[in-house]
Structures are given as structure tokens and as C-alpha cells.
Amino acid sequence: MDPLLAIVPPVGVAIIMLAVWLAGGGGRRLLDADTVRRRIAEDLPDTAMDDAVISSDGAAALATVTGAADLVAAVVVGDKVAVRRLDRGDVAAVSRDGGRLVITTADFGCRRIALTLPAAVTDDWWRRVAALAGGVVDRPQGTQ
Predict the structure, then answer these.
(1) Fewer CB within 10 Å, N- or C-terminus of the chain?
(2) Residue-range domains of the chain with CATH
(3) Rounded to two decimals, what is the model's pTM?
């Protein structure tokens, strides 16, 4: 067997991977306040955002809706951002472990949303999500 036949495929794969990495295909998109605001305006044009919180890993965010108890979730999916409005009953369950909120929704396309929040705002956002929960609410220790 020709040794060149054993060398060419791995070298070709390495060149393709390098080209993808150089083109920016190897990185993850991270959310910031401007991206969240822009994506909500694009996907939900009749919805105005008041306040927002972004997970410490930049992979998810929650925002309040002007004049409503609803929330909007923005979640990084690959190099895209999925936006979902969460009305009463859309939240099937919410749990909290320290500063980490895990929201289970009734939406098949965005079933689970996990956020790690700063300690100063975790209680407030947990209460907001729990108010929409139509199912299980795991209360953090020490609360009623």
C-alpha cells in the first residue's frame, strides 16, 4: 500500500478543521444585553423588554415583559439564539440549587433552560419564574 494514501486523509481533515476554526466556526455565541434586546425585538416585535438577567456562562437569559407578568427566555443554540415567550402555564417546573435555576417548559423545541445567576438577583428571578409555573416548584432551602 502506498504510504501517501494513509497520510492524505488525516491531513485533509486537519486542514478543513483549521479552516472552520479560522472562519470562527469553532466558537460559541455568548449573550449580552444588546443581543438579548435585539433578538426579542426581531422575534417578538410586539413585546417590549423591561429588565433582563444573563446567565454567568452567557448561554441563556431571562427578561421581563413591559406591562405583563410574562417572561422572555433567550437561549444560545449552536451559533443561533432561540427566543421564547413564557406565559403562565408554559413553565412546567422550576428548580433552584443555589444560584442555578433550571426551568422546564412545555415547549418541545426549548424544553430545559438552565441559568447560573448572581446571588443578589437569584431570589427575585426565581420568584418571577415560579409565578408562571403550572407544575412542580422546588423551593430553595429556608423559604416558605
Answers:
(1) C
(2) 33-137 (2.30.29)
(3) 0.72
